[in-house]
Design brief:
There is one protein chain. With 567 residues, the protein is an alpha/beta fold. It has two domains: 54-88 and 95-187 and 197-230, 2-Layer Sandwich (Bacterial polysaccharide co-polymerase-like), CATH 3.30.1890; 262-512 and 541-566, Rossmann fold (3-Layer(aba) Sandwich), CATH 3.40.50.300. It has 19 helices and 13 strands. It has helices at 12-25, 27-50, 99-109, 117-123, 144-186, 199-214, 236-261, 268-275, 295-298, 303-317, 338-351, 368-372, 380-383, 414-418, 422-430, 448-454, 470-482, 499-506, 542-566, and strands at residues 54-63, 125-128, 134-141, 219-230, 279-284, 326-331, 356-360, 396-397, 402-405, 435-439, 458-464, 487-495, 532-533. Helix 2 packs across helix 7 (236-261) and helix 3 (99-109) packs across helix 4 (117-123).
């Protein structure tokens, strides 16, 4: 019975790791998103989330019967009467609704279109406190300030209007009663000593005046309005947390968008896809604890040094040192690691006994001198000028097998110097000395890299993992291919090696990986060699240089013996 093929299990681990790495490479956008989310949670979200809430403003009023009601008793509309009687059966708070007051409030607040006087009266709520003369006046609206202004404006205007009306009615009624009592007294025809007809009326007037002394204003507003939210509002901590989550999502989304729009070379497969060239080798990052731009010299047993030696071995299999005597190291953009590769490759070949000439041919932004700790020396620029100096006379010795031709100080435009025919003559003069490695400028920024690659036997393209953009690398490789320049392949530097691979390579001396510094900004530790020009003749410090070289060679030999003994 034939076996049924099963589908391969999809592993999400690498995909998630690549996704997180893509976000981490754009961590500035993530930080910006978090700051935006923090501001949004502190300022914006409380307003947005609170827009659906309503606010209830309440003010308390003391509503008593007017003193004039003691002359002609009437049941109180709200609250107990002046004599302590309870509210009349069927009494309603609607007696506190006044259209004129409502109309004056909406006119003052200029909300006639949004809130007419009749609508305001319907939305006002009067809640008597049972057994007292207190009434709570409430108004609910989505704007807390408007709710506060409505209840305060209505209560104060209602207080003023009703008190004024009550006092006017009191004065008018008292005047009428006194006049009536006087008329009754003037018509008195009874015997002497009998009470006057107006005596009872004057007693009622006196009682009303006493009541007025104790209750000058029947309606009084108590305190300021109290505004509450209908429904528990979100706290500041909650809105900040929501804002940070939103900011994190925005930042991560922007990071992935940028990574997608400006895709970078991460893996060797990416390098092959972008350049349409084979990947010769990949070079792992330096260790975080012992950071060095030249691991081949400072840390000869580190994984990075092993990788650089592996690059040299693979290049020799392709003809470096035989039919390829001049090799140009090219990258698409600055900071892609070409100078680091050129310097480490030169040291690696020299430590294996091969004669190497490293040419700092980036006349605009030379980096080889910084990596090797060289100062300003005459070099390639002087060999290409109108009155050239022989390049052989400008070489600087780094060790027994490594010579360096510095960039020099250009007296003309670097592009003009590199475009002259003297460049070919200069490189031809260096061929007999040994393997010539050219550290070229960035290929996308100028035509200098094309000019230098044209005089080389082959070109090696360099890309930095997580830094070089796919599009830039494609443009650089296409430009070299268009000019029919031989390209050996790509070397991918700055990759993250696995822990098991590092442990097996270093026998327990594993260090966490860290991104190498940008060669344009890296301030390296000077190599412990005193550089000396090869010609003309020996210098006074040459003996000291030989002693230094002997000490370093002896130290490296001792380390090699210890390693073999450990094995």
């Amino acid at each position: 019975m034939p076996e049924v093929p099963t589908e391969a299990t999809v592993r999400l681990g690498p995909a998630v790791a690549n996704l997180l790495r893509s976000i981490w490479r754009q961590r500035e956008l993530v930080i910006l998103g978090l700051l935006l989310g923090l501001a949004l949670g502190y300022l914006g979200l409380p307003k947005v989330l609170g827009s659906g809430s309503t606010y209830q403003a309440t003010i308390r009023m003391d509503v008593r019967q007017a003193p004039v009601d003691t002359i002609q008793p009437v049941p109180p509309g709200i609250g107990p009467g002046l004599g302590g009687e309870g509210a009349a059966l069927g009494a309603s708070p609607d007696v506190l609704k006044d259209y004129q007051v409502a109309e004056s409030v909406v006119k003052q607040l200029k909300v006639q279109d949004e809130l007419p006087a009749t609508s305001l009266l319907n939305l006002l709520t009067f809640t008597p406190l049972q057994g007292t003369s207190l009434v709570d006046l409430s108004f609910t609206h989505r704007d807390p300030r408007l709710a506060n202004s409505v209840v305060k404006g209505y209560a104060t205007r209602f207080e003023a209007k009703r008190n004024q009306d009550a006092n006017a009615r009191f004065d008018s009624l008292v005047a009428q009663l006194e006049d009536y009592a006087d008329r009754l007294d003037s018509k008195n025809t009874g015997p002497a000593g009998t009470p006057l007809p107006g005596t009872e009326i004057r007693a009622q007037i006196a009682k009303a005046r006493v009541a007025r002394l104790f209750t000058p204003n029947p309606i009084t507003v108590i305190g300021e309005p109290v505004v509450i939210t209908n429904g528990p509002p979100l706290s500041r901590k909650v809105t900040l947390a929501i804002g940070l989550l939103l900011g994190l999502g925005i930042g991560a989304g922007l990071a992935l968008l940028v990574e997608t729009a400006f895709r970078k070379v991460i893996t060797p497969a990416d390098a092959e896809e972008a350049s349409d060239l084979p990947v010769i080798a990949d070079v792992r990052k330096s260790g975080i604890r012992r950071r060095s731009p030249l691991p081949v010299v400072d840390r000869p047993f580190s994984p990075a040094a092993e990788d650089y030696r592996r690059v040299g071995t693979l290049l020799e299999r392709q003809g470096l040192g035989s039919d390829i005597r001049v090799l140009a190291i090219v990258s698409a953009d600055p900071g892609d690691g070409k100078s680091l590769l050129a310097a480490n490759l030169a040291h690696s070949l020299a430590r294996q006994g091969r004669e190497v000439v490293l040419v700092s041919s980036d006349l605009r932004r030379p980096h080889v001198e910084k990596l090797l700790g060289l100062g300003q020396h005459a070099g390639l620029a002087e060999a290409l000028q109108d009155e050239p100096v022989p390049a052989i006379a400008l070489l600087v010795s780094i060790n027994h097998h490594l010579l360096v031709l510095p960039a020099g100080l250009p007296s003309k435009h670097p592009g003009e110097l590199l475009a002259s025919k003297r460049l070919h003559e200069t490189i031809q003069a260096l061929r007999p000395v040994g393997i010539v490695i050219l550290d070229t400028p960035a290929a996308r920024l100028s035509a200098d890299a094309i000019a230098l690659s044209a005089v080389a036997d082959a070109t090696l393209l360099v890309a930095r993992s997580g830094v070089t953009r796919m599009r830039s690398m494609h443009e650089a490789a296409s430009g070299l291919r268009r000019d029919r320049i031989r390209q050996l392949g790509v070397v991918l530097v700055g990759t993250s090696g696995s822990m098991l691979r590092s442990l097996s390579q270093r026998f327990g001396d594993y260090r966490q990986p860290e991104a190498d510094a940008d060669e344009s900004a890296f301030q390296s530790r000077p190599v412990q060699f005193n550089p000396r020009p090869v010609p003309p003749g020996p210098s006074p410090g040459e003996a000291d240089d030989d002693e230094n070289l002997s000490e370093v060679t002896e130290l490296n030999t001792t380390e090699e013996r210890k390693r073999r003994a450990a094995e």
